[in-house]
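Dataset card, provenance and construction

Sequences and ligand SMILES were collected as paired inputs. For each pair, a complete structure of the chain with the small molecule in place was predicted and serialized as structure tokens. The example below shows a pair involving zinc ion. Curators did not alter the output after generation; any descriptive sentences attached to a record were derived from the structure itself.
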Amino acid sequence: MLTIHCHRCSRSHVVGTRSIVSMHHTSEGPVAYVRCPEGHLTIETFGHRTVEDTPTPEPTTEIPAATSLAA
Ligand SMILES: [Zn+2]
């Protein structure tokens, strides 16, 4: 079971996997075409990440000197 949001009905529905019309693997994650109980086709995305979700390492000003590694 999964929760979908239908923009034509303007509401969310809980549907079973039988409502999935097709599923596709894209470079940005899985995408499913799902029918709402009223028969409208919706597009559901799974596992999509945004730039804001991506952790960014803290900038560092300390760079070890190459000569200290050679000793
Ligand atoms: Zn609908």
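Derived descriptions for this record:
Residues 66-70 form the longest helix (5 residues).
The mean pLDDT is 82.
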